[in-house]
Amino acid sequence: MGNCCSVQIGLENFIIRGLDPIVGHDNYVCKLKQTLPTLSVALQELRALRNDMQREVDPAEQRLLKPFERVQLWLSKAETMITEAEKLNADGPQQMNNLCLGGCASKNCLSSYKFGKKVAKMLKKINDHRSNGAFAKVAESQPAASVVVRPEERPISQESMIEKVWSCIEDKDVGVIGLYGLGGVGKTTLLTQINNKFSATPNDCDVIIWALVSKHSDVGKIQDRIGGNIGFSDAFWKSKSVDEKAVDIYGVLCNKRFVVLLDDLWERVDLNQVGIPKPSQENGFKLIFTTRSLEVYGEMEARKKIKVECLGPEKAWELFQDKVGDETLNSHPDIRKLAEEVAERCGGLPLALITISRGMACKTTPGEWKYAIEKLKRSSLPK
Ligand SMILES: Nc1ncnc2c1ncn2[C@@H]1O[C@H](COP(=O)(O)OP(=O)(O)OP(=O)(O)O)[C@@H](O)[C@H]1O
Ligand SMILES: [Mg+2]
């Protein structure tokens, strides 16, 4: 029986040794002693590379950035390879036990030959895959939403307001957000910051629509401004009736996750009439509007109402002196003190601070500044 086996081993060894030069392969059985430990190291390195890449992909996905397809493909191939290589690694000890004659022959030659060949192939596959896994970036940095960035001047002290509005946007329970405040307090400025933040911060909205409403806007005008953002801007469309436009707008918006920013409402806007779908948790739609009127503020049924406040004394002075400039402030020993009083009399209202500081930027005599203070004493600016 024993003799019979050794004859068989010899025969298989002979056949396989004979096969290698014909098919151009190395002797997989003889090399198993080196290739198996090398495979184990390569497997460890592939796992480490896969983990590192996944660590980059996970936070990108959390920020709603889409990983590149080539990176996803690399990761899924790596996963399959790791599983296959782990299996070979696990079978390794058994296969090594089969080797005899210093590792150059096997008790089960055909099986060892196939196994050795698999190990060598897997090693090559892993090495090739590792060298293809050097990606400079794993995900796109483009935000999801389509938004037209509006010109902006960095406002002073609006960061916390921006964050407050943004957290309402992220709150699924909040559909309509109202920003209320005095004329010139910074409502449009704040809304502009929000609009532009959509372009810089990943989010799950498809389109951001800006529409200036203003005092004498009727439904048709509001529809034209919204339509212009979603591809309805030709004269034919503009000539349609309010009802027809509402159907068109509704049809587009219903199929998108969108945010409508309505700036400067003077009266209630009937969303149905315009064609704006009612915000709900399911559609994720948001409407943010600004108004000076407390009445409108209530009538729009805002789920979240945010009052835009005047600047505090320090921030008001910061804005004022920035606009007047040091040259004027230092042009006479009395001017800085007088300027501080002028700034104070602006009541923290950004529009007043900006308009007056610009007007005073070329005034270099104390008399001119005293005159300004007298005029401000008689103004109706917030105290
Ligand atoms: N926080 C701020 N820092 C710097 N400048 C500001 C700030 N807020 C507003 N401004 C400036 O003040 C002026 C008025 O601001 P804005 O138009 O935003 O006011 P508003 O509240 O929209 O007024 P209205 O009710 O008339 O529409 C603008 O020139 C704007 O750049
Ligand atoms: Mg405004």
UniProtKB/TrEMBL annotation:
Swiss-Prot/TrEMBL GO biological process terms: defense response
GO MF entries: ADP binding; ATP binding
InterPro entries: Apaf_helical, NB-ARC, P-loop_NTPase, Plant_NBS-LRR
Domain NB-ARC as annotated: residue spans: 158-329
Keyword Transcription regulation: no
Gene3D superfamilies documented for this protein: Helical domain of apoptotic protease-activating factors, P-loop containing nucleotide triphosphate hydrolases
Keywords for this protein: ATP-binding, Nucleotide-binding, Plant defense
Domain of life from the UniProt record: Eukaryota
PANTHER family recorded: NB-ARC DOMAIN-CONTAINING PROTEIN (PTHR33463:SF220), NB-ARC DOMAIN-CONTAINING PROTEIN-RELATED (PTHR33463)
Protein name: NB-ARC domain-containing protein
Species in which this protein is naturally found: Gossypium trilobum
Lineage per the UniProt record: Eukaryota, Viridiplantae, Streptophyta, Embryophyta, Tracheophyta
